[in-house]
Design a protein that fits this description.
Distance between the termini of chain B: 42 Å
Order of helices and strands of chain C: EEEHEEHEHHHEHEHEEH
Number of helices of chain B: 8
GO molecular function (chain C): ATP binding; ATP hydrolysis activity; transmembrane transporter activity
Strand content of chain B: 5-15%
Protein name (chain C): ABC transporter ATP-binding protein
InterPro entries (chain C): AAA+_ATPase, ABC_transporter-like_ATP-bd, ABC_transpr_LolD-like, MacB-like_ATP-bd, P-loop_NTPase
Number of helices of chain C: 8
CATH topology of chain C: Rossmann fold
Structural class of chain B: mainly alpha
CATH architecture of the largest domain in chain B: Orthogonal Bundle
CATH architecture of chain C: 3-Layer(aba) Sandwich
Number of domains of chain C: 1
Largest interface: A-C, 26 and 40 residues
Oligomer: heterotrimer
CATH superfamily of the largest domain in chain B: Winged helix-like DNA-binding domain superfamily/Winged helix DNA-binding domain
Largest sheet of chain C: 6 strands, mixed
Number of domains of chain B: 2
Structural class of chain C: alpha/beta
Number of strands of chain C: 10
Domain ABC transporter (chain C): 9-229
Keywords (chain C): ATP-binding, Nucleotide-binding, Transport
Mean pLDDT of chain B: 84
Strand order of the largest sheet of chain C: 6-7-8-3-9-10
Radius of gyration of chain C: 17 Å
Radius of gyration of chain B: 23 Å
Shape of chain B: elongated
């Protein structure tokens, strides 16, 4: 067999794929779109590791805060840098204040020149934000002149908000992890970062779940127009091509769709790459340049996809004898057997099972086992579904005429029906599992913060030395703040250095103190000791509360910086109080409570101010108004938003994303369902007209079309739910998260699946009605 | 149809007398037209003269005397030759109907009318034949089919001519 | 024109155009109960269109069709469909059996469309299949039977509702003459025994010979040969 003959046959097939009028084109394009989406996704997968590496490298190259406990001495190549990160709405702004201490001070990556005091260089995204109306609030907090932009190598994503500003007098504030002196950027001892195994698991599952239906779809897509192709192949045999040639021609047809799909896929990928530059997922954005698939993997995709298309076609044609007068399916297809179909999902479960509980304790998941297990479980859907459809449909009994027509049709060709639904079932199963995993993992993170957001929604931390009363006043004047509870807080120890026993000291007015403990009575000048708080050892508190005992406020610890350690002698008449639970970060407050009057002035430098703010969250941008006030009180003051609201937001975003993704995959599959449905209807034009002639109601035929789609889809969705919930449960167990079923999610996913059926049926109705017109009976 | 050959053929199975021959002929072939005995008699005389049959004996009984005929070897050869010789297909070149149609066209009468009327007449015959076929035995069916196919052939010619009347009109007018 | 006395189904001055093609141009028709009328004519003459109009499948552009004293063109599509289900039966050349249903289910289908229960419908179907000598095919699907058998199944189906009028459009067109004749015999016998009228569209004289009379359609105009003669 010479190469030229092969090529000629394949080319003939390619030509057939694109001839055949509008219908031929539609099918070719639809196949190509399906394959193209799959290819784009594949290319993205191959590019992603690269993107994550680039991000990681850039992050490492600009790292500055090293948590060095011993500060390095000032020199002409040192720089004092302070972490001045900001929050704006739900976004984080990476901020650094810099003060070069000599001419050879290191410049951060992506910055050409040090900004002077009162100036800053910003990332393009931040510049855009500040220039926009919505960024004005943030502008109040960053009242510096923009003198330049940070270029790409200084950023880890196109949407990253970042700035460097000039500052002076930073050296006094040097504290590890906050303000540091450095002589270079970049991690001096880069450690191979241990990624969160749960995150890796998520990413793996996301890709498998998104790729599987696409793979199933590609397999189904290359079989589009099978009956018509069969006739064409038979005609080719009639004019003298032998059996092998015919098969090659068929393979050529499939290959044409796949190659066009490759082109589409490359196009989709390029578009997606550009779009990726403006998108942010999980607060992570990337530059298009990050998304360069490694050439070897891209080449693999380019070769594997058309090869797979050819193989699927040849596989589908096995057991088919193409005769000159028609295509003969070899014998009666054997009854589908259950055992090997069950084996697939069971093998998948078996691969996942050993990793149950790994997520929290010993970390790693075996990536191959995870991928293999998930793939096997989902492939199990495609293997089980034909069997289920066949067995169920064979048992479906009497009903109306519409039902009978549909059931009989399904009984004759349950394989075709199942194949069309496979994609939907796999997509839904994957989406359900993924959603359970997201919901479970996210719940987990949200719960662990446990702050009482009903009591306060924000907390402002004011550095020592900031007058608390004035700060509280300013917060009260801020729009959207309903109540302010301000406390000065510190730690008490029984020795100035390395104390054995210690507890908290909280200073506030009576009203504020009542918020955190049950006081018998309160007057200015009172001091209380809280007994029975969970956080403090009861023994410690009782011991420390002995009158005359000498204590130290804000003691120093070995290896840490020197603290003031202001001495305090326990006064007489300390009143006993009871803790109130559920307040202040979920931890009941114990230790000593002190009214303002009772506090010696000397304590002031040893105390940090904390203001807990109750907000009217319906006021727009209330969080940023508070942040602005905080920044106005002191540049080093910090405002934190208490968690749980934002976490849920983030989960919602993922859920929406998942829905959109699943809906797109389902829409694609729906389109292919529609095409095959229409093809089938057109082939039955004569029959339809005859049925109409003897008085069949349109309703009856429409209903039968609906049943014909709905029965396999319902079965598919049921199976998908079972497999999806199983997979979700296993994945949650693997991450060590309590198993909970997100029923709304399951319902929504199956609902989308059901919606696809409805839409497909609705879309096939107009052509159906058109075909049912009596003109179909005309032969002349 | 050659009555002589048919009668000869009937004699091949054994000698028969004249009336016997007539009955056998009528039974098998004479569905529409029974033979007149005179025809049998004259045919047999001719065959006798040509030496294709011989008189096997004379039956004297209560009625008139009857000759019994038997076939000779020559007679058998003759039957054999007749069966082996294909019938010359009818030329059908002289058609009254064609003449009628052309004449109608020449005289500017409605030629389609002529055709329609003829079709109707043909169909009437075909209906009668079909009806007889339904009620009759296999022999009846085959005989009727033969006739039906001929009539059908005429009808197909009628249809074809009807479809080409316009062209024919032009040709005739030239 | 008033319909001829005693006629079950009649049509007058039918006109029907498909786009620029005039399929019927003033056609007439009438049939009595128990009568078999052949509609003849060359291809494209409008025979099938006449049948479709008479059966209420296609509404004519103009003209009247009267069935049993009711004006067909005044009925809605749903009413005409209901009429076709209850009073008419149909046999076509091919492509009329539902390939997924077994033969007996195919025959029972018109009864089922009328709301008869499955059991009852299939019992009636079977008795008609016996009459048409195809009862041994009941469990087979149309793809598994020969053309002649399939056509007999189709005839059984057209008769299962005991229609008053049977419309047959080239019912033997796809069969050899032996099978075709047998189908015609069974069809006309069955129709006569139930006193159904048969409208038989054919271009074959031998099939038309099973009729009582014929009308000829040419260029959209019909000619009733009985009235002419």
């Amino acid at each position: 067999m010479n190469v030229r003959q092969w090529a000629a046959d394949l080319m003939l097939g390619v030509r057939f794929a694109f001839t055949g009028g509008r219908e031929g084109w539609t099918r070719a394009v639809l196949t190509a779109v399906g394959v193209g989406l799959g290819v784009a996704l594949l290319l993205l997968t191959t590019a992603l590791p690269n993107a994550l590496t680039v991000r990681h490298d850039r992050e490492a190259a600009r790292s500055d805060i090293t948590f060095a406990i011993q500060p390095m001495p000032k020199a002409n190549d040192t720089l004092v840098i302070a972490d001045v990160d900001e929050d704006f709405r739900d976004k984080q702004v990476r901020g650094r204040a810099m003060e070069p201490e000599g001419p050879r001070a290191p410049l951060p990556p992506g910055v050409d020149e040090f900004p002077a005091v009162g100036e800053m260089v910003v990332s393009p995204a931040l510049k855009e934000l500040l220039d926009s109306d919505s960024g004005a609030l943030l502008g109040e907090r960053l009242p510096y002149r923009i003198v330049g932009t940070i270029s790409e190598e200084g950023l880890i994503g196109s949407a990253e908000l970042a700035y460097y500003r000039g500052a002076e007098g930073l050296a006094e504030h040097i504290t590890p992890g906050n303000v540091e002196r450095i002589d270079r950027f970049g991690d001096p001892e880069p450690v191979e970062e241990q990624s969160d195994p749960v995150l890796i698991l998520l990413i793996l599952v996301v890709f498998v779940v998104l790729l599987m239906p696409v793979a199933v779809f590609i397999a189904a897509a290359v079989r589009f127009g099978g009956e018509r192709r069969d006739r064409r192949l038979a005609a080719l045999r009639l004019v003298g091509s032998d059996s092998r040639m015919t098969r090659r021609i068929a393979a050529g047809e499939a290959m044409a769709g796949a190659i066009l799909g490759l082109l589409f896929g490359a196009g989709f990928f390029m578009v997606g790459r550009q779009l990726a530059g403006s998108a942010e997922v999980y607060r992570i954005s990337v530059f298009p340049s990050y998304l360069n698939p490694s050439p070897a993997l891209a080449l693999l995709v380019a070769v594997a996809v058309p090869a797979a298309a050819v193989l699927v076609t040849l596989f589908a044609l096995r057991g088919v004898v193409i005769e000159p007068l028609g295509v003969v399916r070899a014998g009666r297809p054997a009854r589908r057997r259950l055992w090997w179909r069950l084996l697939l999902p069971l093998a998948g479960l078996a691969m996942l099972y050993p990793m149950i509980g790994n997520g929290r304790d010993n970390g790693d998941f075996n990536q191959y086992l995870v991928t293999g297990g998930v793939v096997l479980l989902l492939v199990g859907v495609t293997a089980l579904l034909p069997w289920i459809v066949e067995s169920v449909v064979a048992r479906l009994g009497s009903g109306g005429v519409a039902w009978q027509l549909a059931v009989r049709r399904l009984q004759l060709s349950s394989g075709t029906a199942a194949r069309m639904v496979n994609g939907i079932a796999v997509a839904v199963a994957g989406a359900i599992a993924l959603q359970m995993l997201f919901a479970g993992v996210d719940d987990d993170y949200t719960k662990s913060t446990g702050q009482d957001v009903s009591w306060a929604q924000m907390e402002a931390i004011l550095p020592s030395g900031v007058p608390l009363d004035r700060a509280a006043e300013k917060f009260r004047d801020t729009k959207g703040v309903k109540a302010v509870f301000a406390y000065s807080e510190s730690w008490l120890g029984d020795r100035p250095q390395d104390p054995d026993n210690g507890t908290t000291l909280t200073v506030g007015d009576c009203a504020a103190l009542r918020e955190i403990a049950r006081l018998p009575s309160c007057a200015e000048g009172d001091v209380f000791v809280v007994h029975g708080a969970e956080w403090d050892g009861e023994e410690d508190v009782t011991k420390l509360a002995a009158p005359g005992r000498k204590l130290y406020v804000d003691p120093s610890y070995e290896g840490g910086p020197e603290r003031p350690a202001v001495p305090w002698t326990m006064p007489e008449g300390v009143k006993a109080a009871k803790p109130r639970t559920g307040l202040l970060a979920g931890i009941d407050r114990g230790g000593f409570l002190m009214t303002r009057e009772a506090m010696p002035d000397a304590f002031a430098p040893a105390l940090d101010g904390h203001a807990y703010l109750r907000l009217d969250e319906s006021v727009p941008d209330v969080h940023d108004l508070v942040r602005n006030t905080t920044a106005a009180i002191d540049p080093l003051a910090d405002a934190m938003t208490w968690a749980s609201t934002e976490r849920t937001d983030r989960f919602d975003a993922i859920r929406t994303g998942l829905f959109v993704g699943a809906a797109c995959v389902l829409a694609l599959i729906g389109a292919s369902l529609l095409v095959s449905q229409l093809e089938q209807l057109r082939e039955r034009k004569k029959l339809l007209s005859a049925l109409v002639a003897f008085g069949t109601r349109r309703r009856t035929l429409s209903l039968s079309v609906l049943w014909q789609t709905a029965i396999p889809i319902v079965l598919g969705l049921l199976l998908a739910s079972v497999v999806g919930l199983t997979l979700g449960t296993v994945l949650l167990k693997m991450t060590g998260t309590p198993v909970g079923v997100d029923w709304t999610g399951v319902l929504a996913m199956t609902g989308i699946g059901a919606g696809v059926v409805l839409v497909v049926t609705l879309c096939s109705l107009p052509p159906l009605l058109r075909l049912m017109r009596p003109e179909g009976l005309r032969t002349e | 149809m050659s009555i002589g050959h048919t009668l000869l053929g009937l004699l091949e199975s054994g000698p028969r007398h004249g009336y016997d021959l007539k009955r056998a002929f009528d039974e098998k072939f004479g569905h529409d037209r029974p033979l007149h005995y005179g025809q049998v008699y004259s045919t047999m005389s001719r065959l006798l003269k040509n030496g294709l049959v011989v008189v096997d004996g004379i039956e004297a009984g209560g009625g008139p005397e009857r000759k019994r005929y038997a076939i000779t070897d020559e007679g058998i050869t003759d039957v054999q030759r007749w069966l082996a010789t294909p019938e010359k297909p009818e030329p059908y070149l002289q058609s009254t109907l064609y003449t009628k149609v052309v004449l109608a066209l020449l005289t500017h009468r409605d030629a389609a009318d002529v055709l329609d009327t003829q079709r109707s007449e043909h169909l009437r015959s075909m209906r009668i034949l079909t009806d007889r076929k339904r009620k009759g035995d296999l022999a009846d069916q085959l005989i009727c089919d033969h006739a039906l196919f001929h009539l059908e052939a005429d009808l197909r010619w009628l249809e074809l001519t009807a479809a080409r009347l316009d062209k024919l009109r032009e040709a005739v007018a030239r | 024109m008033t319909p001829p006395a005693g006629s079950l189904l009649s049509a007058d001055q039918l006109r029907k155009a498909y786009g620029p093609t005039l399929a019927l141009d003033g056609a007439e028709f009438s049939i009595h109960p128990g009568e078999v009328v052949a509609v003849m004519g060359p291809s494209g003459s409008g025979k099938s269109t006449l049948l479709h109009c008479l059966a209420g499948i296609v509404p004519p552009d103009s003209g009247t069709i009267t069935y049993n004293g009711r004006e067909l063109s005044a009925m809605s599509d749903a009413q005409r469909s209901a009429l076709r289900r209850s009073d008419f039966g149909f046999v076509f050349q091919f492509g009329q059996l539902v390939p997924e249903l077994t033969c007996v289910e195919n025959v029972a289908l018109p009864l089922r469309l009328n709301g008869t229960s499955r059991k009852e419908a299939e019992r009636a179907a079977l008795s008609w299949m016996e009459r048409l000598e195809v009862d041994d095919l009941r469990k087979k699907r149309p793809g598994e039977v020969s053309g002649g058998q399939g056509q007999r199944v189709a005839v059984a189906r057209s008769l299962v509702t005991n229609p008053r009028v049977l419309f047959a459009d080239e019912p033997t067109g796809a069969l050899d003459s032996l099978n075709g004749e047998r189908v015609m015999e069974l069809l006309t016998d069955a129709a006569r025994s139930t006193n159904a009228a048969v409208v038989l569209v054919t271009h074959e004289a031998r099939v038309a010979a099973y009729s009582d009379r014929e009308i000829v359609v040419r260029d959209g105009k019909s000619r009733d040969m009985e009235r002419v003669v």
